[in-house]
Amino acid sequence: MSGGSIWDRFLRKKSVQLLHDESTERELAGVSLNKSLNLLDLTCFGIAAVVGAGIFSTLGKAAADGGPAVVCLFLLTAVACLFSALCYSEFASRIPVSGSAYTYSYVVFGELIAWLIGWNLLMEYAIGNSVVAFSWSDYFSNLLNNCGAPLPDWLQNDHYSCSLAAANTGELAADQSKLVEIWNKAPMIGGLKIIFDLPALALNLVITTLVYIGIHESKMVSNAMVFLKISVVIAVILIGSFYVAPANWVPFAPNGASGVLQGIAAVFFTYIGFDAISTTAEECKDPKRDLPRATMLTLAICTGLYIVLALVLTGMVSYTELRVDDPLAIVFSKHNLNWLSGIISLSAVVAMASVFLVFQLGQPRIFMSMARDGLLPKRFASIHPKFKTPAFSTVVTGIFVALPTVFLNSQLVTDLSALGTLFAFVLVSGGILALNKADKAHGATANPGFRVPYLNGKFVVVTFLVIYSYFMFQHALPANHDLSADWTWEKFPYFIFYLVFVGMAIVTFIKNWSLIPVLGVLTNLYLIAGIGHLNWLRFGVWCLMGLAVYFVYGYRKSRLVTGVQS
């Protein structure tokens, strides 16, 4: 299996049948994961990952730009997410094994792309989860402060931010001055300033232990946290509805379509997380049926809650008052409902913890799948004999999450985490196009499980290209259309996106490609373009690091080369 050119080895693929055979072998050998999850559990995992405390602050800022019409933005974003969600659903139904986008890419694009997506999923789940830990720490610390039991400042900040502020010799902003004060007052051991985010580390330790112990225990905690935070959101909606003044909904879109769309990227990222459901495929009782249903239910429930909550908040006060980090506090204090603040603060802590739990479940299963294929050492694929969890991979994930919370700050990893997630969405959406092509080549007319509905994108994608081109040339370029006069590197990603858009429109017209996966690719590429050229460079460096690891180990140890079961 090791023959062929180097390029052929990069493109070596795993067939769907081989994945099913390997899954059967593991079940017979007693080294598979426990099948414990039903439709309710999977839906709760999805909601747990999507509905975090950040939705409240995001909603406030998006409403301040778009007015009450922000509800249209949530609906539009849900439709955009639906493209990727449908593609994930088909893959999860046809390939019901752990690995998510990594495994799907192995089937349709080959080993090298699969490795890169697995490497980038490390940013989404493990490194990205450190961002969740930072956010949870902020909410938890605020809750302690409100209860009159604050932690010392040196136990609720990161060493990196404080050291940077202390090294700054220029004029400092208020928040930077606070960090310098923390640095100066922090205790020292052996000349080292002791500053670390204790709540973030504690959350990591507790959740990692829970995930290590078992999927049954994890789902029970996840379900309980989801029921609690959804109950609070519903209570906020019901109580707030009595204070809605329809006059606050006029004008509905005060800043027009541009104002509504201004918050599209931030709102889109409030939906990210539904893909984490697919990492638990091997632990589902009926993955072909339940995974697609859970994905669709997650999007439907979350979209409904977001829209109704947006209508209530913009109806309680003028949209102009919502450009704050904590809009709920402003809204309810204005109506003398301060007693709700404590409940909402507790709900925010629970919401962020549930997000952390789901992502902490996902990464070990990615590691496990990569190790089974020989691309990581066998130890990563080991299953605990009692708990039936990827124990070693879970511990390693906990370490990966802990390191950024000790040495970095959230801003350094937030954008890279988002870019890695969107990259996975692009490949999964594109993978459906490759599956469709393979089905036609092999004469496949029917497949068990969920399928992305086929809609011919021939004319729709070309129409979208014409509309986008008109908008770009009329509004995004200088009045004289002289690119050189107004060129900045921030525009370069959008230029690349436009070239890809043109290419996909042409191929879609010629090949009659399916509309939904094409729109999935384009939607996520557009959002990637908006993350900025510097993050593209950082992302490229991260990928080069991944390639180095692959060539040092995975290229030679791949099971498709050695034939050895991991």
Query: How many DSSP-defined strands?
Result: 2
The named CATH superfamily of the largest domain: Amino acid/polyamine transporter I
- Structural class of the helices, strands and pairings? mainly alpha
Mind telling me the CATH class of the largest domain?
Mainly Alpha
Give, in spatial order, the strands making up the sheet with the most strands.
Answer: 1-2
Q: SSE string, helix = H, strand = E? A: HHHHHHHHHEEHHHHHHHHHHHHHH
Helix content: 55-70%
Strand content: under 5%
Quote the distance from N terminus to C terminus: 16 Å
What quaternary form is this? single chain
For the record, the count of structural domains works out to 2
Mean pLDDT over the full residue set? 85
* Number of contiguous helices: 23
Radius of gyration: 24 Å
The geometry reads as globular
CATH architectural grouping of the largest domain: Up-down Bundle
Instruction: Describe the main β-sheet briefly.
Output: 2 strands, antiparallel
